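input
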Amino acid sequence: MRNITTTTRTMLLLVITILMGIAYHGEAIACPQVNMYLAQCLPYLKAGGNPTPMCCNGLNSLKAAAPAKSDRQVACNCLKSVANTIPGINDDYAKQLPAKCGVNIGVPFSKTVDCNSIN
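output
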């Protein structure tokens, strides 16, 4: 079996992300899309440190995909559900993620946020 280089793996993930973005263009955001954007953030959300560039790119993609209040509320509920389902996600790291990536998406990252209060 051939080893896939990091560059090849990164390019493949980028292509998949772009294709998924095209597939969702013009439609309301959904949890699988939110999860895809932030999958690269899971190591940071569990261990802290600094998020990877791929994680921050996903966060930027999420921001672009959730421009409307209703989209941000859906994204909030998706994030809250994942945070409460996957063991080991640290709520403090989650709250710090947007600032660490320099992205304000208008969705608080927290296990206890009231997603109906999102503007």
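quick obs: Residues 29-101 form a domain with the Hydrophobic Seed Protein fold (CATH 1.10.110.10).
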